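Look over both lines:
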Amino acid sequence: MDPRVLLINPNQMKPVVAPLALDYLAESLTHHNIDFKLLDLAFSEDVETDIKHSVSERDFSAIALTVRNIDDSYFLSRDFCLEKTKAIIQCIKRHTQVPIIVGGVGFSIAPVPVLRYCGAEFGIWGEGEWSLPLLVRSLSKATALHTIPGLVYREGSSYRINPPSYPDLYTLRLSQRDAVDNLRYYREGGMIGFESKRGCDQGCYYCADPLAKGEKVRVRNPKDVADELAHLAKKKITCFHTCDSEFNVPASHAIDVCKELVRNKLASTITWYAYASPFGFSEELALWMKRAGCVGIDFGVDSGHDRILKSLGRRHTSDDLRGVAALCRAYGFAFMFDLLLGGPGEDRSTVRETIELMRQLNPTRVGISLGLRLYQGTRFGKILGEETHAPQRALFGEPSSGMLKPFYYLTPDLGPDIQEYIRDLIAGDRRFLFGGSEDIGEDYNYNNNSKLVQAIKDGYKGAFWDILRRLEEAG
């Protein structure tokens, strides 16, 4: 039997987010002459029936699921999304004995703990475009598995982890994007994601991106990126968001991507948003991003206090934030500064100084996240998560195997009423997105945010933070 794969998107968060990984994987499977079918559970009204119907339709060599999120990375809710993925895998097992493969960014953060928790047979850590076709053909031919890069599987009573491989992205073609119903995602999710690079070399002490995507930045061919957006634009999709860890790392490649978008005359057709680092954001880059159709930028600034920035392993300073704010205003970008408060060394004075600096710099919006999500492979996960005499208010959540379940550090130096303190500092300033409460739809959590869902139904498009901003300004 020729190999055939059932690709499944288990992510049911609302607003919906298109499964970019499955679109890219589908193109790779096609290139390797492997047939596939896509089951997208984001729109399912009866998950079990849809799974039963799909797996019984005809034989598959394997079933592959993408794990985009382990949890919602939000201290106030601590929603353990992986629990829902595990339930879907259990449902699949009730209807078929076909081997199940898991992969994706969420899986690659903690490969063995995720595989053990979900009960799948195989996992792919790192790039799936090369490893998935190899695995599928190995299963159909019953050949050895130990040579497949990034493959994780049970071997006896333990797990074998093959080293991941990060081949050259520059020669990989990912521009077709035909497997996923991207137009529906655009209509119901407000934007469509794309990558111009993978990996992150910034070395922030808390961040899981290097675990999931690799510590070395690998760039795509700018022409293939432009072809991808042009292909989607022909489907009447006109608003996009980068899925890069940082679009401007390296800045030279970001400029090349922008120039290619300009060369293809896409700026008059599309708009797009980006994640970017405050470090190395230049006027030349701002100019080309503007020319290429970028309308908004989300900067992960974390803090406005230099001592705290250093303690988090960040490369930028408060002076860099001043320069970024000036450039964004000069070139007309909507821009957001994302804060991450409550790490080691933080106290009320550093929080106050950061909030005051945000008021002075006047970004379009300021996102406030409280508490550091700890991951096992990060520097903070190793140091803070393994404290044996941690203060009572330092660690929150369940210290599960591999720190799989939401597990947070929040310095006790902020005091027990820190949410109220931050709300008092904000004093009703609507530029700040911070719930400080459990009110669903009223806070800075995009997971099942009813305001966003309704706004997108009403025709709003763009980054979620910018949609919330425009909703507020519309009254």
Q: What stands out?
A: The chain has two domains: 4-161, 182-371+410-474. The chain has 18 helices and 19 strands. Confidence is low (pLDDT under 50) at residues 437-442.
